[in-house]
Design a protein that fits this description.
The complex is a heterodimer. Chain A is mostly helical. Helix content of chain A is 80%, strand content 0%. Chain A has ten helices and no strands. The longest helix of chain A has 39 residues. Chain B is mostly helical. The longest helix of chain B is centred in the C-terminal third of the chain and has 38 residues. Chain B has eleven helices and no strands. Chain B is 84% helix and 0% strand. The chains are: A mainly alpha, B mainly alpha. At the A-B interface, α1, α4, α5, α8 and α9 of A face α1, α4, α5, α8 and α9 of B.
Chain lengths: 258, 260
């Protein structure tokens, strides 16, 4: 436990050191003031944002669009992945199409979406889903196809009902794959939501970044960028939690005590 | 013959969907969804090969240059940080933070530092695609087989040989995986940078067409980007198969013995 604490203290120390070096570099004039404001100015703005209502409004918009995009992607993606993965025929029929659709950069849909919708949260959710559904779908169908042959035959011999087969064989063996897809999807969904906000003007943190940029409020803009990174850290933490909770039994999660 | 049949079966759905799109959109008067025939005509006018040099070539150039920088820096730094885990652990919080920041949010920052222009696009791609390459290189280097490492040190391999013949080959599956992750991210970032600050490129043409309501042109650019993403994905898969043929073969033979 003390080792963990020590490590945490060291990490905070490193973080403080980086900001200190940044501040010193600004004072010494090593950083162009018109591009990189001083660390103190940025952190001051960030602190001010953290207690402001407007920031949490933005954060709620971004977070809800992200959560909705992930929820839709995961439910539709696992559903379709299960269907496609469990039939050789469906897999063959859809392979080329899915291959193509998943390599279309979803961000290129933004101009189309701005024509169809106004720049709003719906747009963020759609573009988020357009990118985030594929990792879950593809990983799930891999996972379903990777079910152990012997177990599968055993289930068939004992004539276990399809629903139980799904619950006790297919889902458990596909789950590590699903979680891998989920991890990618969560990151990609945040990227797309932020893109829709920043490039197409949907309300949220991304949009606040571009407003701060165009009004030349540099410390504010940097503060927003730092905070959206913090939101990203939160997303990663959440995924790690899901992994730990639901994959306890899986070898990849076992840690060896030193 | 069998292979032909299989490809035929796989083509059926995409072809059917394109046909459905063609017929459903044929009489369309909607601004956002013009008939497919118009889109194809626009595709032909724009990209074959009117704007090839002025827009496609710059987009690809920036992409390749940015990825090359990211790969060089990412693999070398990744190797160093992989060899010294303590160094990596102490800086991990900074890496995690920057990596967790959506790449597009770094666009305004890079814009301020590098100014608008071509080097901005190269910079944003290099900065954004650096992270997956860097982190997976670290992973690869750290997962080196202990027996291989000890054997190398017992044999007193020269450092150069150790690096080039033991460490990097054993890390190469992860490095290639990182590169394959970086590629679609690079395409996304080049489009984003062309939406934001640009006067050429496929993304710029798409945005311009949308803003002037020339939606057939917009769709043509969208389709081109889709084809580009798909081609790059296929190419990277082929390259992976070529480079890692030994690794895939090794794994296949391993699992075969395991099955016995």
């Amino acid at each position: 436990m003390s080792g963990l604490n020590r490590r945490r203290i060291r990490r905070i120390g490193v973080l403080a050191a980086v900001f200190l070096v940044w501040q010193l570099a600004s004072i010494l004039g090593l950083l162009a003031q018109e591009a990189v404001p001083s660390a103190a100015a940025v952190l001051g703005e960030a602190a001010r944002l953290l207690v402001s209502r407007a920031f949490w409004n933005d954060m709620a918009l971004t977070a809800s669009a992200w959560a909705l995009a992930v929820a839709i992607s995961v439910s539709v993606g696992t559903g379709l992945g299960l269907l496609i993965g469990s039939s050789n025929w469906a897999h063959r029929l859809t392979r080329l199409l899915i291959d193509f659709l998943q390599s279309v950069p979803a961000i290129a849909m933004l101009p189309l979406l701005t024509l169809v919708f106004t720049a709003n949260q719906l747009m963020c959710v759609i573009v988020g889903c357009a990118a985030a559904i594929w990792p879950v779908l593809v990983q799930t169908s891999y996972g379903v196809r990777d079910v152990d042959k012997v177990s599968s035959d055993t289930f068939a011999v004992y004539q276990i009902t399809p629903l139980r087969r799904l619950r006790y064989l297919v889902l458990p063996s596909a789950w590590p794959y699903v979680v891998t897809g989920l991890r990618i999807s969560c990151v990609v969904a945040l990227l797309m939501v932020a893109s829709a906000e920043l490039l197409a003007g949907a309300p949220g943190i991304g949009n606040s970044i571009s407003i701060a940029l165009s009004s030349a409020a540099l410390p504010l803009m940097w503060a927003y960028v730092l905070l959206i990174g913090l939101a990203g850290l939160g997303v990663n933490g959440l995924v790690a939690l899901v992994e730990r909770r639901t994959l306890k039994w899986h070898p990849s999660q076992r840690t060896v005590e030193p | 013959m069998k292979k032909k049949l299989r490809i035929g079966a796989e083509m059926w759905l995409p072809v059917g969907l394109v046909l459905a799109w063609w017929f459903l959109s044929a009489k369309s008067t909607s601004v956002a969804f013009p008939p497919l025939s118009q889109i194809i005509a626009a595709f032909h006018d724009l990209w074959l090969f009117e704007n090839f040099r002025s827009d496609i070539v710059p987009s690809l150039e920036h992409l390749v240059l940015g990825l090359a920088i990211a790969a060089t820096v990412g693999i070398s730094l990744g190797t160093i940080f992989g060899i010294f885990p303590a160094l990596y652990d102490s800086l991990k919080i900074i890496f995690d933070w920057i990596r967790a920041t959506p790449g597009v949010a770094l666009l305004p920052v890079t814009l301020l530092i590098f100014g608008p222009g071509d080097h901005l696009k190269v910079a944003i791609i290099a900065v954004g695609t650096f992270w997956p390459i860097f982190l997976s290189t670290i992973d690869g280097v750290r997962s080196l087989d202990l027996v291989a490492r000890d054997t190398a040190s017992t044999l007193h391999l020269r450092r150069r040989d150790y690096l080039l013949r033991v460490l990097l080959p054993s890390a190469s599956p992860q490095i290639v995986a990182g590169l394959r992750l970086a590629l679609p991210l690079g395409v996304t970032l080049i489009v984003a940078s062309e939406f934001m600050a640009s006067t050429n490129g496929i993304g710029y043409q798409e945005l311009l067409a949308a803003q002037t309501f020339q939606t057939a042109n917009m769709w043509a650019a969208l389709i081109l980007l889709g084809l580009l993403g798909y081609t790059l994905n296929l190419a990277s898969r082929l390259v992976e198969r070529r480079i890692l043929a030994w690794h895939i073969g090794y794994r296949a033979s391993n699992s075969r013995t395991a099955a016995k």
